[in-house]
Design brief:
187 residues; Jelly Rolls; 2 domains; 16 strands; globular; Uncharacterised_HutD/Ves; RmlC_Cupin_sf; HutD family protein; RmlC-like_jellyroll
Length: 187
Amino acid sequence: MKLLRASDHKRMPWKNGGGETVEIAVSPEGAGLAEFDWRVSMATVATDGPFSVFPGIDRTLSILDGAGMTLFIEGRAPEGLTQASEPLPFAADAPTSATLINGTITDLNVMTRRGRFTHSVQRVSVDGNSEVAFAGGTSLVLCHRGNAEVDGRTLAAGDCLLISDDHATRRSIFGKAELFCIAIEAI
């Protein structure tokens, strides 16, 4: 297990130059935008416009802060995405643009290289003691709001716990927090 503190997350420009991303974790460690196997990041979106295109990548987007946005993904009907919405998976190589609903938003972006890895993202609210099931492979627990303790590691808002385990397991979580649980599996 590795605790990734919010203060240590890497800030970098968007691939299309239109904003800034906060990289939470990437594999292999230190990989650039063209070489990663998987990547978890947050971005602040302040204006309407196109998304960066990532050939061969699948992504899931969740709204962390703000009113949300409407996504226009090629080949699909427009989709509204808000803080209350389920995380939205789609191909990162499909031309995509967004229109903000009412001002700036912050999103959570999980990406995996198609044909090599798959991923899932779920929003989990904790108030007291809870258990969350994790599949084998790599799991990340991002604390979005509040504070939580996961297997003895304390997470504050923005912190992330990276768990590498070849076996499916259940993890004990205690606290009052909104978390995003991310599972990444090799194919």
